[in-house]
Every structure is written in C-alpha cells, then in structure tokens.
Amino acid sequence: MSAFASPVHSPLNASRLYKDNCQSCHGVDRLGGMEPALFPENLSRLRKNKAINVISHGRAATQMPAFAKKLSKQQNASLVDYIYTAPKTMPKWDLADIKASHIQHFQQNKLPNTPQFDADPMNLFIVVELGDHSATLLNGDTFTPITRFKTRRALHGGPKYSPDGRFVYFASRDGWISKYDIYNMKVISEVRAGINTRNLAVSSDGKYAIVGNYLPHSIVILDTNTLEPIKVVKVSDKKGISSRVSAVYNAPPRNSFIIALKDVKEAWEIPYKNNADFSIKRISTQDYLDDFFFDPAYKNLIGSSREKHNGEVIDLDAGKK
C-alpha cells in the first residue's frame, strides 16, 4: 500500500471490518451462516450501490441491521469492495462439509403416507415467493391456499418433484437443498450442497438428486430418501481446467442426468441406472453452453451459446454436434 493510500480501503482493514460486523451472520471466510454467503457469484443480482444501501439502512423483514450509525461511508464502500472481490483461492466445500451440514427435521417413516388436507394431491400448485422467502401450497381446483411455509433464501432453478408427487425439492442460491413433504406439509430434511448453486434435478425413479454449483466447481449427487450426499465430483475438462456448472437436467428416457459446463467446452451425461459409480460420459462442444433443452425423444440437446449467434444441437447418442 502506498504512503498516500487510505487505510480504510486496504484489504486488511476491509477484512477486519467484515470480521467485526458481518462474520457472525454471514460466516467465516464469507461462506454463509444464518445469512447468505458473500461472494461475487452470490451477489450477481445485487448492484454495488444497492449493497451499500443495504449495509447502511438494513433490509426489511430480515435479520439484516442498519450500520449507518456505526460505519462511515468509506468503511461501507470498503466492505462492499471486499465482498465483491473473488477470494484468492477457491472456497472449499467438500464431502465432509456437506455431510456436516445435514439436518434431519423429521423422520419420514414416522409420518402419515396420505395427504393431511382436503384437496386432490395430483392437482396442486406451489408458488415460490422470492421477496419474503416463503412458498404457498395451493389447491389446484379452487386456487385457495392450503398452507404457507418459510423457505431458504433466494430459491433458484424451480422446485423439482418426486415421481409420486409427494415430495418437492428446493435449491437456494447459497447451496441449501430442502426436501418438503407435501402430504404432511413439513420440511423433512436439508443439506448444503455448495456455496453458490445453479440448480438441481431429480432422477425419474426418484432415487437421486443432482446439484450443479458455481462455487465450488462441483456437482453433488444426493440420496433423495435422506438427502445424504453419495458423491461429489470436482468439475473440470480433460485437461484439468476447472469450470462452473451452467445447468443440470434429468433426461427421463435416457435414465441419466445431463450437465452443461460454463467455462469449458464440454457437456456431461451421467447415467444413474446400472451405473453404481456414476461414471461420466464427456461430450465435446464447439462453444460454452449456458443452458439447454431436449427434443421430444431426448436424443438431441439444443443449447444456447454464449458467444455465437446460433444455438448448438448435440446428438447425445453419437456424442457430437
């Protein structure tokens, strides 16, 4: 630091500010705790000027207090610069961390196997309310609420359902996966599969869920019965170049998960039927895939490309464009 630089804006000072004012809620090393993780990937939808306002004035209906009387404008700006700066080393969130985060709220086998409400269980809606981190279960015949319940913060990727319609799985941006029992209107179990999560998918047989992460660069396969992790895969291409995960989807006729990678030119297919070790089939792509969908037969993947005007169609059986 030069002799003329303000100590308020030094990285060391900002780190201290974070430890003294933010760490108790947002976790050691910005990994998250009772409140979300604070990394550029987690803050992508919050502009810096709005982050400064949140620190100064707090956020309604949350635990976030106002720091305007405690922190100067310079200190506030220094904190914002700090949390919008990527760490020098990739944050760690491995199998041991995932297992340690697991929460079992209720024993599934001790709950009734029939709906505890008067509505057609196959004609329901779940409305995700992003602003106050809640969801409402609606009767599909009358559009009246059956129950409303709290969710993790900033759900992303859309809820995914078990084949029988009894369970719904939610993914939050800060990596929490929640299993909700619709019949009994209870959150059964939760696990934190990553630090910043893109989305999740559930297998056609209902046995597995796969989670794709931005941080760390990983995919996580969960046992849907308990939400215990089965396997964690560090995501990188054949040359070892690490990558975020753009999207994960289930391909029902193929009995496999399909994964798009954001930073390398590959897509992955992971069969989950008769594939005990969840081995990966790598498919080379001509561009980075941000997202994709399938043709009706699930033979072709149609992907959107980040840098080119045209999409990309990949034959999954042949493994090529």
Mean pLDDT over the residues: 89
Helicity level: 10-25%
Shape assignment:
globular
> Any idea of the CATH topology of the domain at 90-194?
Thrombin, subunit H
Distance between the termini: 51 Å
CATH architecture of the domain at 90-194: Beta Barrel
Strand order of the largest sheet: 1-8-7-6-5
* Spans where pLDDT lies below 50 across 5 or more residues: 1-9
Largest pleated sheet: 5 strands, antiparallel
Based on secondary structure, the structural category is alpha+beta
Rg (C-alpha, Å): 21 Å
Figure out the total of helices. 5
CATH class bucket of the domain at 90-194: Mainly Beta
Topology as a string of helices (H) and strands (E): HHHHHEEEEEEEEEEEEEEEEEEE
Overall strand count: 19
Beta-strand content bin: 25-35%
Which labels suit this protein?
five-stranded antiparallel beta sheet; disordered N terminus; 13% helix; Cytochrome Bc1 Complex, Chain D, domain 2; 321 residues; alpha+beta; four-stranded antiparallel beta sheet; Thrombin, subunit H; globular; 5 helices
Q: Outline of this structure?
A:
With about 325 residues, the chain is an alpha+beta fold. It contains five helices and 19 strands. The N terminus is likely disordered.
Please write out the topology.
Elements: H1 11-21, H2 23-26, H3 48-57, H4 73-83, H5 95-101, E1 103-104, E2 124-129, E3 134-139, E4 145-150, E5 160-161, E6 167-171, E7 176-181, E8 186-192, E9 196-202, E10 208-215, E11 218-223, E12 228-234, E13 245-251, E14 256-261, E15 266-271, E16 281-284, E17 289-294, E18 300-305, E19 312-315
Antiparallel strand pairs: 1-8, 2-3, 3-4, 5-6, 6-7, 7-8, 9-10, 10-11, 11-12, 13-14, 14-15, 15-16, 17-18, 18-19
Helix pairs in contact: 1-4, 3-4
